[in-house]
Design a protein that fits this description.
Number of strands: 10
Mean pLDDT: 95
Order of helices and strands: HHHHHEHHEHEHEEHEEHEEE
CATH architecture of the largest domain: 3-Layer(aba) Sandwich
Structural class: alpha/beta
CATH topology of the largest domain: Rossmann fold
Bound molecules: S-adenosylmethionine
Strand order of the largest sheet: 6-2-1-7-8-10-9
Number of domains: 2
Number of helices: 11
Helix content: 40-55%
Length: about 260
Amino acid sequence: MLLEKIYSEHGWDFRNYKRASLKRRIQKRFAALDVRTYPDYCHALDSDPAEYSRLFSTLTIKVSEFFREPEVFDLLSRTLPAKFTRDAGIKAWCCGCAFGEEPYSLAIVFSETLSAEGLKHSKVFATDIDPDALDTARKAVYREDSIRNVTPEVRERYFFKVNGMNKVKYVVRNLVKFGTQDIVKSPSISKVQVLFCRNLFIYFNKTLQEKVFEKLDYSLVPGGVLVLGKAEVLPQRFAAGYSALGGHLSVYEKKA
Ligand SMILES: C[S@@+](CC[C@H](N)C(=O)[O-])C[C@H]1O[C@@H](n2cnc3c(N)ncnc32)[C@H](O)[C@@H]1O
């Protein structure tokens, strides 16, 4: 009932997200407002429109960090320059990019490995369902714990200090283009060569995983690289179309 209400009033479609995880998160809002039942919570939503945005931000978990799973980025640093023509540039897409840590990490890999000509033709499209998260991402200012995986040399080259925080330099920000997109409802981006979709499928039920994966598969060019989260696997129906690039890592190459 609550999920139907959210969908009909706001168009946010959480109906096929995993129930257990949604329930845990909704309970947090119950506790915050000291309500016990769904009808009471719906009443609270009706009387305070701001509660909708608090609920939305509770339901969309945005835990991330720079170079999350550093081995993935090491692998990409080694393989991307050989896979794609250095000067032609790379079109990448980070779907479910939270506060921007992942697309900026990928843009740093591009800056470190591509030629100046290649960088001119490269872009990391970064999308998320939450427009407020993207506003924060565009500001590109991070606390120390977000950049704990960043080496001192890379910090020196691509970050600078602002009021004790760490801001990403323009040379990296310039490579990333943010946009609001609900991957459940919207069409995907086409002709993508590197596609990150990490720690998003874990919130979807199996039916929704397959539906969304169909969009990702359509996006990726043959020979393109797909990066999923550590706990995520390719849906069975698509597995034959991909080969593993990095052993135990969830990094795949789309077969030609
Ligand atoms: C846990 S974060 C993952 C961040 C990053 N990819 C990582 O692995 O570090 C999941 C992100 O997916 C976003 N998200 C949830 N549902 C979405 C949807 N239907 N379309 C696009 N993004 C969505 C959330 O807002 C959140 O920012």
